[in-house]
Amino acid sequence: MKKLLISTLCISAFALTACDKKTENVKPTIAENSTVSIVYSDNVTADMNNDLEKIQTLSNTKAQEALKFQTDLAQAAQTGEKSALEKVIQHMTTYVEGFNKDLDALTLKSNEGNALRTKMKEVNHLSIELAEMSMKNPPDIEKITALQKKSVELQQSLLQEIQAIQTKTSKS
């Protein structure tokens, strides 16, 4: 049980840290927001490159705090103090909400960058859900296992999208 909790919380924290040029083929896509319509470019290298750079800069800025969660989670899980774990998870939740707001605040121009942002937010939310599920007494092992699998799949997909953008932008 303790090993499952530690591994689940580490995966949650890891999910939070997870995270050059031409092709001018514009197929605008409109994203509907409650008050604003944004037109994203499709397959425009400069836009993809700029969006990836903005997302990576934000992620790098947030990485130190996420790494601290890994340490805090490991320490809290080893002591087994529920109150300490709850405190760390609450702090993680606040961090994720802030990170997702910061992602939303980025002015992105490409469909690819917007898809990357959306997937990152999904990974962030899933990491919190996973941490909260591990705190339940008794924990639902099937749900935790399913969430861990989904988390790994999302992280792999996120990496593939980043690599696809890097490949597209480096060819030009």
Could you explain how this protein is built, in words?
- This protein has 172 residues and is mainly alpha-helical.
- It contains five helices and two strands, in the order H-E-E-H-H-H-H.
- A two-stranded antiparallel ribbon has the order 1-2.
- Strand 1 and strand 2 (37-40) form a beta hairpin.
- The termini are far apart.
Radius of gyration in whole Å, from Cα? 18 Å
Residue share in helices? Answer: over 70%
Helix/sheet category? mainly alpha
Mean pLDDT: 81
Helix/strand order: HEEHHHH
Low-confidence runs (pLDDT<50, min 5 residues)? 19-33
Terminal Cα separation, in Å? 51 Å
Observed structural traits:
172 residues; mainly alpha; two-stranded antiparallel sheet; 5 helices; 2 strands; 76% helix
What is the secondary structure topology, with strand pairs?
Blueprint: H1 2-18, E1 29-32, E2 37-40, H2 45-79, H3 82-105, H4 111-135, H5 141-170
Short description:
The chain has 172 residues and is mainly alpha-helical. It has helices at residues 2-18, 45-79, 82-105, 111-135, 141-170; strands spanning 29-32, 37-40.
